[in-house]
UniProtKB/TrEMBL annotation:
Stretches that traverse the bilayer: none
Pfam families named among the record's database cross-references: HMA
Annotated source species: Acinetobacter wanghuae
Keyword flag Cell wall biogenesis/degradation: no
Name of the featured protein: Heavy metal transporter
Keywords linked to the UniProt accession: Metal-binding
Top-level taxonomic group: Bacteria
GO MF assignments: metal ion binding
Metal-binding keyword on record: yes
Domain HMA as annotated: residue spans: 1-62
PROSITE patterns documented for this protein: HMA_1, HMA_2
Amino acid sequence: MKLRIDNMTCGGCARSVTATIKELDQNAVVTIDVATKLVDVETQISQDDVIAALTEDGFPPVTA
């Protein structure tokens, strides 16, 4: 899935986003481009669950 997180502004934010996704699925593959605010996630977890977890942690995404 591809997501855009508008308030992801630094490497620390990217690490937090990755950690949140990995809490849901430790085998998830997460690729982040902070400059474009895009996150690519390969996981078996539903997109709705990923969005809910990121929103709860302060990084509300939109689908890209």
